[in-house]
Write the structure tokens for this entry.
Amino acid sequence: MTFSASNLFRIPDLRKKLLITMGLLFVYRIGFHIPIPGVDVQALAELAKNSLNNSLLGIMSMLTGSQLGSAVIFSLGVMPYISSSIIFSLLVKVVPSLEALSKEGAAGQKKINQYTRYATVPICVVQAYFVLYGVLNNPKLVPGGITLGYSLVAITAFTAGSIFIMWLGEQITEYGVGNGVSLIIMAGIIARMPSYILRYWGSQGLSQDEKIKTLLLFALAWAVTVYVIVYITKAQRRIPIQQAKLTRGRKVYGGQRHFLPIKVNQAGVMPIIFASALTVIPNMLGKVLARVDSRFIWLSDAFGQSRGWWYWFFYCGMIVFFSFFWNSLMFQPKEIANNLKEYGSFIPGIRPGHRTAEFLEGVMNRLTLAGSVFLAAIAFLPSLVTDSLNVPYAIALFMGGTSVLIVVEVALDFIEKLNAMLVMRNYDGFFKGDTGGAGWGRRRS
């Protein structure tokens, strides 16, 4: 299989889409160099030098491609829009009116997307408030202090920046290639890595030979991690589906065999995002209770920066729980079984209806268990790499953890969309011999 990137620029329409995508991503990166009004830029630069920590803001910034630890107009990134999308994804499954609206086709989905945009605004305001008083509440950053007027200006700037990024993502989705929001997250994650590596290279305490050895080991671990993530992301259980035969006169219709693909990691990165948000609660609760009784300080220490066994037990347990929770909402065995029965299809050896639903649920539970263990291992890997190689947690989080999982999944989706566009125009895929989609990597006869 040989690489053929030249095919991407032979089709005028595809070339235009790629240029639009790159141009909008460039505009997105410009916003990270525009500070909030009233902020001391030099003091902000001093704060940025200390961003290689394992604080909550740093971890959430790496997960979402935002920059919560700074004070620029794009600090919130697409985080509010992601939060709103997750909320409505859950509400569609539990609220009957929204579920009925989602089944109305393109018109219903357009209405839900409109509700998602509306809900993004109050989420922006709330998150901007926490960033304002959690990051900018420093006399060195805001010489005049945080007054009511300044709070309104800063929160408005944060909110406008996040809404503009949401608009950029929608424009990429409509006029570019791939999912705009996902590409923005990937671009934000990748753009931060060169500065992190340069800061690590310029740090004190290690010799140049030790740094080179550490980075080489890091690169090897990263390559192995990417290979495993690609393997698990593409892995699926293909359940055979037999279509019933229908005889009309001398002609026989149907009787074909299809497959129902179910991914091993069906939940994607959502369980890790949910678990990361919930692990903050014990730490905050421990700090509050410690003010009343010093005996509760262990709770804050266990879930703080020390990250002991209690933290990892709770964190991995939450990942497994949310994997089953998310898949139970998004994968409906009874609905699939009823659809198969209605269209005259069945799983060989399994009776249609209730037995089919039980079989699909059992398969999904086993796959979810395997996928959740994989996600827990990916989430635990950065801490293991940090302790073993003595590197900053932010670099380990990208090179061997959740961020690389996001980047790989988005990159695979982007390549598949390029393959589909090329093959549709009778060109070889992004790699020669590709046919795109489900037959990725298969040579044409």
